[in-house]
Amino acid sequence: MNAKYREITAQLKQKNATLVAVSKTQPADAILEMYNAGQRDFGENRVQELRDKYEVLPKDICWHLIGHLQSNKVKYIAPWVHMIHSVDTPDLLEEIERQGAKCNRVITVLLQVFIASEETKFGMDDEELMDLFDSGWIQQLPHVQVAGLMGMATNTDDLVQVRNEFGHLRQLFDIIKRKYYATDPVFHHLSMGMSSDYLIALEEGATMVRIGSLIFGERTATK
Ligand SMILES: *Cc1c(COP(=O)(O)O)cnc(C)c1O
Fold first, then answer.
1. Ligand 1 pocket by C-beta < 6 Å: which residues?
2. pLDDT for 35-59, tens place per residue?
């Protein structure tokens, strides 16, 4: 396995953080190579590609859906997905609850928060997020476990800005944890950081980083 992969897993181990190897656009054999080196958590951003890979790869892989999810596609991944990082509306949560009930499992999700200064990224804003927890129903869904928050920083060379955005997400995470999960350990994941900014994310308290190109090599097609 490549040196970068080893370096990153060593850094993460020190911080007790989890690597989600982002395998979008990568062929099954590249994933299998990393699997054979011990990697079990893989992330994909498209449902169809995720399903295709789930079919052909070992069944003990923990598959993370990290990209935008349309409600009508939840049913395809509900029976086996390990974690959905990109829950960005109450409607989507309701559909995940419905599909979780159908296959009789509790689906673990993260709520995606919009922290960047770009127009193009998905996620809830701070107010929508707090309203959702204040309403109380999110903590009571029997087939959805809200395990934390996810965010993507602005794609910029301004590292101060990136740090501020991650720091802000960390603050939100701490507030929610203290206010709504003081006696319940399930809310414990903060998914932030990609190839370009994972070290900053770790310093700001990420428990999970999503890294693709740095360990697999540059993607030829950008998805
Ligand atoms: C592609 C992707 C990543 C990983 O990006 P890299 O720059 O290749 O590390 C992380 N998170 C999400 C949501 C992605 O779509």
1. 22, 24, 45, 66-67, 152, 194-196, 210-214
2. 999 999 999 999 999 999 999 999 9
